[in-house]
Each structure stands twice: as structure tokens, then as C-alpha cells.
Amino acid sequence: MYSVRLWVVRHAGAFERIYNMFEPVLVKLHPVWNKIGYQRAEKPMSKIEQACKGLLFDCKMCGQCALSSTGMSCSMNCPKNLRNGPCGGVRLNGNCEVYADRRCVWVEGWKGSQKMKNGDRIFAVQKPVDFSQQGSSSWLRVVRQISKNKEQTREKSQ
Amino acid sequence: MIFHDEPNAGDPFPHLPDHSSQGRLERVLRAGHFAVTSELAPPDSANPEDVYDRARVFDGYVDGMNATDGSGANCHMSSVGMCALLTRVGYSPVMQISCRDKNRIAIQGDVLGGAAMGVTNMLCLTGDGVQAGDHPEAKPVFDLDCMSLLETVRGMRDKHEFLSGRTITDAPKVFLGAASNPFAPPYDFRPHRMAKKIAAGAQFIQTNYCFDIPRFKEFMARSRDLGLLEKVFVLPGVGPMASARTATWIRNNVPGIHIPDEVINRLAGAKDQKKEGQQICIDLIQELREIEGVSGVHVMAYRQEEAVAEIIDRSGVLDGRVPWYPGRDEELLKERA
Ligand code: SF4
């Protein structure tokens, strides 16, 4: 929802902290996901993710969440799908070039990033969107990646 | 001014070690000259002469011409098509690539095609939204954004790879540009955004119309603090406004263009508004030239293209230098032979 989305970005710092607590829990559950099978967990997990993030961020389920690099303002709501900051068309009042009655996703995101501990992630260049991930769970992807990295470092140290 | 290794018209320059391209624009900028580029409005026709006619009005005054890619989301001859025609006779076009109409497969194909035709400069843009143009019902693509587009083309050039990792046997040697709009909010993010573009591969920057000098100075000062000015050539955009009415219309209807009231009032108060618009443009060019980090100007004289020569001439920024045009060196080459 538009108004919820704006409210969340105004409290980007809090949501950053919440996610930072939530992520390790998901990672801890890696054995559970493994047991169920990541593929089988995918469907229910993406449903849950969509419900939560859809409500809070108007999440579009791109499957490669960048909220922590966009000031908690979902950049897939930018009609140009920009992942790296505002286009040159932002109106003088900070509204979007395309939707004159809506705030520019990135004007809000820039404000949000300044409220975050790791807000400077907004300065990193984001990769192009992988459209084949659309609809999949970003959370599971992150967990799988982190667990895989951990295993690899463990194997190396042995 | 003629480079010592000036090639025949249409041929590339010898490749210098610290240059990315074999093109003229990069040569001029790296040699420290104040460069002039201009916007070349594409015709709504399939006649090559229309392109050449439009290019000829700039002869002797510009170092590069931007072949726009459906700018304002209006349909015209393609940027690739125009570049093909222009390079054929030796001009140095800047091929604009917008992310609005093509996905990564089409874009990378165009980059190779353009480079094969002798395009040495490419400008990576996001593009205006389709709502701004004459086909608002079109499907907006925006598969890449300008940032990932820059990285993609740089990867093709430096790593000899498509985005997919597949190898390119002969890489496109291009000088990479991007746009910047210091005049749109959030102002304090704009220098950072330019920094990102540089990190993604931008070597030169052309800006939107610059009418607000204090705002631009502020932008350049912040960019200097971020250490960007040594890494990039900045060419602020300028252009004559035909009248106060046109300026007001543009301000209200074209995305991203900021024209302060003073400029509009100055136009409105003039007897000959068109002349005044050109004078304002000349004044701006002269002011911009003095700002640290400005390497040239990019002239956008929509529907007043024939005025560009006089504007550049009267601004004095070329210091007597005559940028290349077909036929410029004919006498000299005859003597050489
Ligand atoms: S104004 Fe903002 S939200 Fe709108 S298209 Fe540009 S970057 Fe996206």
C-alpha cells in the first residue's frame, strides 16, 4: 500500500534493524530448509514473503531484494525499474516523472538511506535485474547463499 | 587545429595507449581542448540526405554530435541508423542508447553493430518514460538501467564479454558517456549518482540544460570533494530558448528541465526574444567555461540548429580551433600528397 510504503521508508532505520535480527534466524533454520528441500520450501516461503513485503514495501517479488541498498524503498516500484538512484526526470516537488501524483521512489529512498546504519550501500552499483528470478523468494536465496559460503569457508579451513 | 596523425575521413585514429577509443571526441578532450558537442535531431523520414543536411549546419563548430535515441519518447529515425550514415562520411557521432525501448540482447547487438560502423562514442541513458512521447501506449522495456548499461558496455569493451560471459572476439572500442541532471531533486544525491556512473564506466558526462549556474557550481564543488572531476569530462548542456513562452512550455512539459524565473523574465522583457535567447546561451557558455572541471559544452538547440554556429562563434570557446568536418582538410591533404 502506498501510504504504508512511505511510512516504512520514513522508519528505514528500524526496519533495517528488524531485518538484521531476522536474517540470522532464517540462516539458523538452514537445516530445516535443507530437510524440506529448498525447492519445496520455495512455494510457501515466497507466499509468506510476498504477503509481508507486499504489505510493507509494495514488494514486486523481483527475487533479488535490494531494499537494504535502496533506503528501504522498493525500486521495482519505480516505473523505470531503476536500481541505482533517481532518473533525471524527478519533479521539483520530488514527485515522479511518470506518476505526477506519487513520490519518486528514489527521493524517498535517499532519505531512507540516511536513517540507516548501512545506508551508504546506496552508493554501490547494483547489477541488472535477473528477470528469471521473478516471483521467487529472496529470503531463501539469501539464506542459501550465506549457508553455502559458510560451508565453503569451513571446508577450506579443514 | 589538426592532429599530427589525422586519418583520412571515416578512418579511425591510431589507438593511443591511454585512450579507450580511436575517435575524435576522446582525442579532443584528452588533448585538453574545450570540446563542443551538439544534439542532432533525427528526422521523421527514411531519407539519408535529411540526416546529412541536419549534420552540415554544425560543420566546423562541433567535435561530436549526439544521435538521439527516441528522445522524449518520440519516434524518429533510430540512433544506430543515423550513426551509420554519419560515420560513413567521417563525422564523430555520439550514439545514444536508451534503456526504454530495448532489452539487453538488442542493446548489446547494437553496441557491436555501432562500433563496427565506426561509432566511437556511446552515451548510456535510462530514457524518458513512454508517457512523455507520442506513443504513450507502448510497452516500456527498462530491462537494464543506465548504470547497468554502462557496466555492460564497459564489460564488452574491457573484458571482451557479453553480459552472459560469452566471449567477444573483437571488442567495441568506445568512449563511454552518461547523462547527469544536477537540477532535479534530490540535489545532494546527484553528485553521488555521478560517482556511481563513473564507477560503472562513464568517462564523459553531458548534463541537462544548465540555466541555474549557482546550482551547477554547487554540484561541481561537491563532485570535486568526491574526487570525481579528475576522473571524468563534464560537458554541461546549454541551448537557446526561442521565447519566454517556449521556455515556460518546456519547463512545464519536458521532464527534468529546470529554468529559473529570472531566465524567463529576461526573455519576456526583451524586444527580440529569439536573439535574447541566443545571447543568454552565449552568456551561460562563457560562465560555465570558467567553472572548475568543465571540459566543454553540449548544445541542444532544438529547432534552432542553424543558430549553433553563431552561438559557438560568439562565445569564443573554440579559441580559433576549427573542429573537423568533411572536406576541412582537403587542401592540406592535397599538399601532403
Ligand atoms: S522520478 Fe523516480 S520513481 Fe519516477 S521514474 Fe524517475 S527515478 Fe523512477
Automatic annotation (TrEMBL), chain B:
It comes from the Bacteria. The keyword Oxidoreductase applies. Its cofactor is FAD. Pathway: One-carbon metabolism; tetrahydrofolate interconversion; Amino-acid biosynthesis; L-methionine biosynthesis via de novo pathway. It catalyses: (6S)-5-methyl-5,6,7,8-tetrahydrofolate + NAD(+) = (6R)-5,10-methylene-5,6,7,8-tetrahydrofolate + NADH + H(+). GO terms for cellular component: cytosol. SUPFAM superfamilies: FAD-linked oxidoreductase. Keywords: FAD, Flavoprotein, Oxidoreductase. GO terms for molecular function: FAD binding; methylenetetrahydrofolate reductase (NADH) activity. Residues 1-20 are annotated as: Disordered. Belongs to the methylenetetrahydrofolate reductase family. This is Methylenetetrahydrofolate reductase. It comes from Amphritea balenae.
